[in-house]
Amino acid sequence: MTSHLQTFHAVVVGGGLVGKTAALALTQSGLRTALVASTAAPLPPGAAFDSRIYALSSSSQALLERLRVWQALDRSRLGPVFDMRVFGDARAELHFSAFQASVPQLAWIVESSLIEQSLDTALRFQPNLTWFDSRAQGMTVDAAAAQVTLANGETLEADLVIGADGAHSWVRAQMGAKATRRDYRQTGVVANFKAEKPHGETAYQWFRDTEIIALLPLPDDHVSLVWSARTDHADALMKLDPAQLSAEVEKATENTLGKLDCVTPAQGFPLALQTVDRLIAPRVALVGDAAHIIHPLAGQGMNLGLRDVAALAEVIANKEAFRDLGDPVLLRRYERARREDIQKLMAATDGLQRLFSVPGTLARTVRNAGMALVGAQPLIKRWLVSAALG
To answer: Which CATH class for the 53-109+184-271+362-389 domain?
Structure first.
């Protein structure tokens, strides 16, 4: 193929929700932006809900509203969370209430495909955006610019390359950043169910025998399951037929929502903690799973990635006129802005996962006593809700 050079302010590599949100934020600010990504795959015919869902915080909602994506979502498919009930493995219980915390809702439960299709639509109407449905296969960086070569023969030149290409990031490898990964030896099993009893816009979470089970509210009394199970157990769960899986979830959740009817096939994804030694390199910045992976027990992984995008967009919007997007000073501002938030959330989720993975009566007694103590402290609960909202 003959290489054709095209110039941009920024190139975003990666087509998940974080990458597409980053591309939209940059192009809406007037920057010529290239997106190297594929379009969103539609739901299978007849599918009631996408198995992949996210619990979006107020900060994520605010970002999507600023980009005019949230307003385009089908409201009938959004599930607000007004209450959350967390059950320990020795009868301890925590209750979080949006009313008591004086917030409109604790989170929104949203299907991945719903957001991604709205992002795709918004991106197609951006005059400053060029979308390349191809794969990046080469990157060089010098003092003047970065160049990304694509499998289709195109060469893209830009001031800044943003790596939003997931846990096994190609961009991260090109910039020489080191990723440290610790496998939790767990798999997140996800599926959706129609519940017999109304969920009342309440999210439920159970800690059971070193595993964590969550039922998250969707419209029309549907719920989304996220079961962080030992890998061998997860494999067994995903081999069950829909009726058998429903029965297992009913048992594990103590029939809280009555009979469950499985409406989407179960899917699984490996769970791990992954850190990187740096978020930036000359003319390169990482966002989303390319920069960090945390345990899903708090439902904060996507929110953390979207806060990366918001911080990077803010740094760029406030840059001095004489700096280009790849200026090391700007990139260091971005890394400093994100360091504390990422480290705190990693420590919190990893600490909880470790705490509830310790077997034995003494460990169970201690952690449930801690849950009871938190539940009796309104100020601590309010602080936890505030932290989760971003």
So the answer is: alpha beta
Within 10 angstroms of residue 278's Cβ, the number of other Cβ atoms is: 16
Beta bridge partners of 107: 81
CATH 3.50.50.60 residue spans of the chain: 4-44+116-180+273-353
pLDDT band, residue 380 (cuts 50/70/90): low
Q: How far apart are CA 213 and CA 192, in angstroms?
A: 13
254: number of Cβ within 10 Å: 11
**Greatest C-alpha distance within the chain:** 68
Taking each continuous run of H as one helix and of E as one strand, the counts in the chain are 11, 20
Distance CA 275, CA 342 (A): 9
How far is Cα 128 from Cα 322, in angstroms, rounded to an integer?
21
Write the class of the CATH domain 4-44+116-180+273-353.
alpha beta
| Residues 109 and 386: beta-carbon distance below 8 Å | no
DSSP 48: S
Return d(Cα 297, Cα 357) in angstroms, integer.
13
On whether the CB atoms of residues 222 and 263 are closer than 8 A, the answer is yes
Could you give the angle at which helices 58-66 and 17-28 cross, rounded to 10 degrees?
A: 40
Q: How far apart are CA 388 and CA 20, in angstroms?
A: 23
Q: What is the DSSP letter of 290?
A: G
Residue 325 C-alpha from the chain's centroid: 25
Q: In which residue ranges of the chain is CATH 3.30.9.10 found?
A: 53-109+184-271+362-389
Mean pLDDT, the chain, rounded, equals 91
The closest alpha carbon to 305, from 37, 59, 29, belongs to 59
pLDDT at 91 (0 to 100):
73
CA dihedral for 243, 246, 250, 255, sign (positive or negative): negative
Given this model, what pLDDT does residue 1 score? 44
Among 17, 34, 129, 127, smallest CA distance to 69 is for 17
Interhelix angle for 301-317 vs 58-66, to 10°?
A: 50
Asked if 264 and 138 touch (Cβ cutoff 8 Å), the reply is: no
User: In the 8-state DSSP scheme, what is residue 102?
Assistant: T
The percent of residues in the chain predicted with pLDDT above 90, rounded, is 77
The 3-state DSSP class for residue 88 equals coil
